[in-house]
Design brief:
Protein name: Sulfotransferase
Largest sheet: 4 strands, parallel
InterPro entries: P-loop_NTPase (IPR027417)
Helix content: 40-55%
Shape: globular
Structural class: alpha/beta
Strand order of the largest sheet: 2-1-3-4
Keywords: Signal
Radius of gyration: 21 Å
Number of helices: 14
Signal peptide: 1-22
């Protein structure tokens, strides 16, 4: 399968055609297995930047070379990633919904030492089945605080320090977003503006793509499968009380809670730039109404929920 795709990449590269067309033609011609991933036209899958490039016609290396070996490698890696993702989804009963900027990386590291699980991150939950009972662990945080952190985490003003850079070079919309807004309060206060930047601010919350974290909150993740998840076994790990929740949830699941909470992605230049004016706070809370409703529903249904 990978060889066929690599050959297609070479043929279409030589002919000047789009790489996505080659991948599409080969996909239609090859038999699909039960582990294949369904098409994802809206970019919801948790793919890396190179996979997103394939969907849009292949990377631009900035030179005149064909990069045949590079193309073959990218196609192979993306196919392997998709197969691994699908296998984990089918085989694991523990589903971890890693909502961005809710201590999800720390929770993931703790889980890795204890039990097999499938992690859902930067894409919507779409694998809940009423006839297949699973255990759902969700990273949770106050929605407003989550957006403030997400804005700061993805900002290019963090420079060379470790921060959310994955996919940024490919996402022209996110680049445009950060050209409009240097600080989170500017973003929040513009949510009702009838200007180009106001439209960009609303778009970032309502229609996030690629690795954008600002709009990928609780409503984004559970837009389609919330009722199914709520009817199953749900546990919440809140970033505000992560030590307590890890101990409680791991104890309920018969796992050993970590002696120390693993920390990841917690230090970056803009992390303390959290000021919101009264206007900005109110507008942002209003815009996050659906996120707050989803969190309340999760709290009501969770085994360790706060009703």
């Amino acid at each position: 399968m990978v060889l066929a795709r690599a050959i297609a990449c070479l043929i279409f590269a030589l002919s000047g055609s789009n790489l996505a067309s080659a991948v599409s033609l080969i996909s239609k011609a090859e038999p699909r297995t039960g582990l294949d991933v369904a098409p994802d036209p809206e970019g919801k899958m948790d793919t890396d930047p190179e996979c997103n490039d394939i969907e849009s016609g292949g990377p631009d290396w900035g030179d005149e070379s064909l990069h045949v070996e590079d193309l073959a490698r990218i196609v192979s890696e993306c196919r392997q990633m998709q197969d691994n993702m699908s296998w984990r989804s089918v085989s694991s009963s523990v589903q971890f919904v890693h909502v961005g900027k809710c201590a999800g990386s720390s929770i993931s590291m703790a889980l890795h030492k204890q039990t097999p699980f499938h992690e859902i991150h930067i894409r919507q939950v779409d694998n809940c089945r009423p006839d297949e009972q699973r255990t759902w662990i969700v990273s949770v945080r106050d929605p407003l605080s989550r957006v403030v952190s997400a804005f700061n985490w993805r900002s290019p003003l963090n420079g060379d320090a470790p921060h959310g850079q994955s996919g940024f070079a490919q996402d022209k919309q996110e680049q445009q977003f950060y050209r409009c807004f240097r600080e989170v309060n500017e973003f929040a206060e513009s949510l009702q503006d009838q200007s180009e930047c106001g439209s960009i601010a609303r778009r970032a919350l309502e229609k996030p793509i690629y690795s954008e974290h600002v709009g990928k909150g609780f409503y984004y993740y559970f837009e389609h499968d919330l009722e199914c998840v709520l009817a199953q076994e749900v546990y919440l790990i809140r970033s505000e009380t992560i030590a307590h929740d890890l101990n409680e949830v791991f104890g309920r699941l018969g796992l050993e809670a970590p002696a120390e909470i693993p920390h990841d992605k917690g230090e970056y230049p803009l992390q303390h730039k959290t000021y919101l004016s009264a206007k900005g706070k109110q507008l942002l809370q209003n815009a996050l109404k659906n996120d707050y409703e989803v969190v309340r529903a999760l709290e009501h249904a969770a085994k360790n929920g706060r009703r």
